[in-house]
Amino acid sequence: MEIRKANLEHVSEIVLLNDAVQKMHAEQHPEVFKYPTNAEEMEKFFRDVVSRDGNFIFVANFSDRAIGYVWVEV
Asked: Which of 8, 33, 60, 61 has the smallest CB count inside 10 Å?
C-alpha cells in the first residue's frame, strides 16, 4: 500500500471514495448530510479543501487504485 498527500490531481479519486462515506453519514445524520450528492459540487468542494492551508488529505493506494482517504484539518 502507498499513501500519498493529495493534490488537485487526486480530487476525482477522493470524490469517488467520498460517496460511500457521504451515504453512511446521511443515513446516520440526515439533518446534516445529504445523499446522493452532486458530483460537480463535490469536485468543487474538495478542490477547495485540498487548496486550503491547514487541510491535509492523504490517499491510500493499493495496486495503483485509490482505496481510501483521510482528511485532517488543523
From this structure: 8
**Which amino acid is it at 67?**
I
Name beta bridge partners: 73: 55
Question: HSE of 45 in the Cβ direction (CA atoms, 13 Å)?
Answer: 10
Where along the chain do its domains lie?
A: 2-73
Q: What is the pTM of this model?
A: 0.87
Give the number of C-alpha atoms closer than 13 A to the C-alpha of residue 64, restricted to the C-beta side.
0
Task: Write the class of the CATH domain 2-73.
Answer: alpha beta
pLDDT tens for each residue of 7-49? 999 999 999 999 999 999 999 999 999 999 999 999 999 999 9
In angstroms, how far is the first alpha carbon of the chain from the final one? Answer: 25
